[in-house]
């Protein structure tokens, strides 16, 4: 019998980590999510010594991540994390929306056990695929005594969901940890913990219980040279329920875009949150800001926050 809480559950959702190309030297012309999660596990011999089970929750390219998959993933992760024999859960995922899924799971579950996402920049069929080591590292983190919260492990770095940012389109080391850097490093199979594991107040599964087809539409738009209010009015006419605007610099907006967004709040009752399109740095509200900012949240995280706010509104 394995000792209590020694089991690791691996939930597969697809992504490049499960991608397959016709040729081993083709790192872009592949099908993401082609392989099942058990195939990924079987490619990592040291995992044979781990008390593991696997479940396929989805099999998609994470560019196509959707509300129904998020709901199911949160439900399955919560189910397994609640089992006394489970020490931690690992999720294999695509890199494209990894930071959104990580933040969504953090906001909904903020688990006391580790919920560790991992991914890869090269498909499983590639020369020097990065997925197998990332998966092994993710399991190492999930098995680490005291590890907690929603984390992402890639290229030896363990990032908290709050700080996770995809920064590069193709490099293996594609993720950064915002202004604060990683929570821990995985070095030759050993974990060097740098700071406290992330904690949070979970919204709970009841917050996302509604039929995903009926989840409110929250759109992200940006300020840019020549930005005006037409896009805002088009979105309102199309039925948008919440807006996140990625402003320039410290969340600044062109005068016509800001006027249209203020009108969206006052006339249409659509909430607007202001972020920055800069990769790093929090938005600091000047006195009397016309629209509230999301502080250090990225536009993609702010979209999740606004979605959850709208979901729990009566
Ligand atoms: N398009 C892929 C995905 O997000 C990219 C990746 O996983 O690296 O599923």
TrEMBL record:
The keyword Hydrolase applies. One of its GO terms (molecular function) is asparaginase activity. Substrate binds at residues 62, 95-96. Keywords: Hydrolase. InterPro entries: AsnASE_II, Asp/glu_Ase-like_sf, Asparaginase/glutaminase-like, Asparaginase/glutaminase_AS1, Asparaginase/glutaminase_AS2, Asparaginase_C, L-asparaginase_C, L-asparaginase_N. Residues 218-306 form the Asparaginase/glutaminase C-terminal domain. The keyword Hydrolase applies. Pfam families: Asparaginase, Asparaginase_C. The active site is at residues 16, 95. PROSITE patterns: ASN_GLN_ASE_1, ASN_GLN_ASE_2, ASN_GLN_ASE_3. Residues 7-196 form the L-asparaginase N-terminal domain. CDD domains: L-asparaginase_II (cd08964). Gene3D superfamilies: 3.40.50.40, L-asparaginase, N-terminal domain. GO terms for biological process: asparagine metabolic process. PANTHER family: 60 KDA LYSOPHOSPHOLIPASE (PTHR11707:SF28), L-ASPARAGINASE (PTHR11707). Belongs to the asparaginase 1 family. This is Asparaginase. The lineage of its organism: Bacteria, Pseudomonadati, Pseudomonadota, Betaproteobacteria, Burkholderiales.
